[in-house]
Task: inverse folding
């Protein structure tokens, strides 16, 4: 079954096949998952863009073709509308799922970033939380706290989470790399 749905510009009809929506979304989800696993950002971005476009087309079709709950069946302008149950049977999506998709599509960039986000971070393994854009991948305790510790405790004997730089700066009395002891 195929429906003629008007997408975007009301003067340009587009052939939309709602019964293929669930399958197309599953295929795009599989591509997205594979792109994330292989860290292929180009494929990931293209698949996400295709998924969003497909979802937008689906939401447009749903809004134009599905009679909302509580609407009378015998309204002339809406006589061609199908029930939500029929739409769910046809597409595999229920009204709550459609509402969630519609909510995500209200802010496409945020939605897109949520899907891409974790993968983009994996592509930049040197990125440490809070240091993006600084070029640094180490966090050091600010000098004023080190000085306060020295005033109270004297020296710091051993800190397995520290670095050779701390030893060079005189922060630690002793420093051993893990696995070298």
Result:
């Amino acid at each position: 079954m195929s429906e003629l749905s008007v997408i975007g510009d009301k003067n340009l009809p587009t052939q939309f096949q709602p019964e293929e929506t669930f399958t197309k979304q599953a295929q795009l989800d599989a591509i997205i998952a594979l792109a994330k696993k292989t860290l292929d950002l180009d494929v990931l971005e293209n698949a996400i863009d295709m998924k969003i476009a497909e979802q937008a087309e689906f939401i447009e079709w749903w809004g134009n073709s599905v009679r909302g709950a509580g609407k009378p069946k015998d309204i002339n302008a809406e006589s061609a509308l199908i029930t939500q149950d029929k739409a769910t049977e046809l597409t595999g999506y229920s009204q709550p799922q459609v509402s969630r998709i519609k909510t995500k599509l209200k802010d496409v960039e945020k939605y897109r970033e949520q899907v891409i986000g974790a993968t983009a971070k994996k592509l930049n393994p040197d990125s440490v939380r809070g240091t993006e854009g600084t070029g640094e991948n180490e966090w050091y305790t600010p000098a004023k706290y080190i000085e306060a510790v020295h005033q109270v405790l004297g020296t710091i004997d051993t800190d397995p989470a520290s670095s050779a730089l701390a030893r060079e700066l005189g922060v630690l009395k002793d420093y051993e790399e893990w696995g070298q002891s």
